[in-house]
Structures are given as structure tokens and as C-alpha cells.
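Would you mind writing out a protein's amino acid sequence and the numbers that encode its backbone to help me picture the idea?
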Amino acid sequence: MARSSHPVLSNAQLNRATLARQLLLEPSPLDPVAAIEQIGGLQAQEAASPYIGLWTRLRSFDAATLDEAFQARTIVKATLMRGTLHAVSLDDYLRLLPAILPMLRRMSRRQSRGSPALARIERLAEAAIAFSTEPRTNVELRQHLETIADGDLGTDFPWWWVRRHAPFIHVPGSIPWSFGRHPTLVAAEAWTGGRAFAAEDAALEHLVRRYLGAFGPATLADLSAWSGLSIVSLRPAIAAVDGGGGLRRFSDEAGRELIDLDGAPRPDGDVSAPVRLLPMWDSLVLGHADRTRVLRDDHRAVVIGRNGDTLPTFLVDGRVAGLWWAEADGKATRFVLEPFGKLDRVVRRDLEEEGERLARFVAPHEQEVYRRYRTSRARRPAG
């Protein structure tokens, strides 16, 4: 096999490049909107995760600033990449959804094949959007659809099939972390004030640029894994970004081609990387198909549960070195480490200091954040 002529980037260089773009080398002064755009959004199945994700990245982050951004609609929570919930800026939502929505609808078609019919799902999705010009709960939406459906929807009707066929946004409330476990939804057009969505081709180009700016250098397989889109569907957008000389090409240690934005930061592999605490489903852990730049293959199954739950982790020298948990300790929160191996004394001290700082951050909102995942049957034990 002929060797690539592209410059080779070591795993250490890829690690530091990703940490730099994910704002994990040093605390950033960015505001929440700019920070979330820089890191390509934050996955938000657990309401606390975007808050902890910004806490670990930003200088003097106050949870109230993210509450305010959700309320002001400058940041929105909605189904996007990989069909999962993300917190993104409103501008990114308008520029990403047209690239993602066809994939969401294909997912719905595959999973709903035969029951109920696709045409019926589309008709119900249109009705749900028309009904959701003001916030509605899942119960309200289901009851409304039952009134217009051809017969009872049945107790097992998968409402999420309908939700994937139309753009909905989660409505924030005046509760800790802004969102509860029983969402209130609103039609995206109503929440965004009728602002225009990007055209699909422009949206795909924006998605490529946003991804590489947040996670590059990366392979096409990495981009596909992060977005949920096929490599075939992404190639025209990659060619368009590259058309103006916007891309550079490298190789990794295995000889795979990497693409990256021209001028994006690529620090040396020996740049210092402080300890960091990451929330569940953090962008750093989920941004690549090959995650070995940040997560060893033998640790991957411990971090990512059988059902896809991605547990809260900590970084040592830029790589996942264990899990962390929060426990109630009277009126305060106690921080607990679950390392994958022996920790250096200085590293443990640094982690404990960060843990105390995180405990003070989460305690007013949720003392035992992520508690139910600690004993989840989906977890794979270490070893």
C-alpha cells in the first residue's frame, strides 16, 4: 500500500487539537452562546449536562446565564445530530436542522415500517405542528392526535415517530437545569419567530465547517458518526468547503486521511492539559468514530453503557481516566472518583479540588446529579 503524502499527525497531536477546540486546555472567556457554537453543541438528554459541560470549559460560569439564554431563545434544546437531544445556538439550529431533518425522517421510516403507515405519520406530524404554536406537553399532543386519527392510536403508538417528522423545540421552565423529565414542546417556527431556515445544501456545508472547527482534524467516518449522516450525503458539502481552499489534509498514525479547516488550531502534542471533569454525553467523548484520541478502546465499554448511556468522566493528561459521581452529604454534595487505575498523588489532589468546585456548583440545583446512572443495569463493570 502506498503511503500517504499528507503530513502525519500523532495521536497526541490529535488529542491536543481536539482539546483546544473543545475549550478544555484552559478556561475560556466566551459567553455560553459563543462557547456552544465553538464546541459544536452539547448533547442534552440529561438536563444538567450542558450546564456542567460549560462549567468545565468557561471561566467563572454561572448557571443562571444558561437559564437566561434558554429563556431568551438564543440557545435552544432540540433533536439534532444522531437523532439525540442537543443544546445549540438558535443560529446553529436554523443552519443545522435542514441538514439533519432528512436523516431523522429516514430513521422514522425505517423504524416505523409497516405500523403505522408513513403517510399517516406525515399527516399526524403536520397536525402536531399546527397544534403546537404554543407549548404543549406530550400528553396534550397525544390526546390531540387521537381526536383526529383514524381510530384510537393505541397505547403503544410511538409518538416519537411523529416528533422526528417535524421540528419541535423543548420549552424551558423555571426549574433547576431549565428542563424536567416530562418535556413541553413547541413548533420550531413558533419558537424562532418565523426566522428562515437555511437551504439544505448550505446547511450541509455549515455542518461540515461546524464539525471540523469543533473536532478536527478528523476522518469522514468521524464526521458521519457525529452527525448521523452518511458519508455519501456529506461528500458534496465537503467538496464545496474544499472548493475555496478551505480544507487541509493530514494522515493519522494508521494512515487514514484526515481533513481539517485551514488555519484551525493544532497545538503540539506535549502542550500541558489540566485535569477536567466532563458531564454525561460530553461532546469530547462522542465526537469521533475512532475515539482513541481521548478514550482507550478497553475503557470505552465502561464509559458507554449497553444502551448508549455515556457516563460522567474525568480527564488526566487529556484522556479519559475514570468516572466521577456526586453524593449527598447532608446539605452539601460530596464528589467521588472511580478511576480506571492508580492516580498520581498530585493528579488526585487536582481532581479533588476540581471535584469540590463542581460539588459547590451542582449542589444548589441537584445534589446527586446522575445518581440513577451509577447503579444502572446498562453499566458494564471495569475489568
User: Anything to note?
Assistant: The chain has two domains: 1-271, 295-374. The longest strand covers residues 319-329.
